Amino acid sequence: MLICAACGYAGQLKLFALIAAIGIVGNAVWMRLALGFSPISGNALMAHVSAMLFALSSCGFGWILGRFIRQWHESRVEE
Fold first, then answer.
1. How far separated are the first and last CA of the chain, in Å rounded?
2. Among 10, 26, 29, 47, which residue carries the largest CB count within 10 Å?
């Protein structure tokens, strides 16, 4: 999720989509191989949705933080 926030901070939405897709695939593989769940069961789908929402909120927080910091640097008064 830290990488998702860094992607939002830098404005790299394509990289965020790639990282999120890798995370969801890794989550599905983990559930299938280690836990024995079907990736399309109700509990697994809820875990996938919650992971995606967490990734999106991480990216959004990074984007807002990046905007705030860039605006703050641009508004600095130089002598």
1. 40
2. 47
Helix ranges (H only) for 1-79 are 2-10, 13-30, 42-74
What pTM value is reported for the model?
0.79
* Distance between CA atoms of residues 57 and 74, nearest Å: 26
Per-residue model confidence as pLDDT tens digits over 22-70: 999 998 898 889 888 887 888 888 989 999 999 999 999 999 999 999 8
* 53: Cβ contacts below 8 Å, ≥ 6 apart: none
Q: Residue 35: CB partners within 8 Å, gap ≥ 6?
A: none
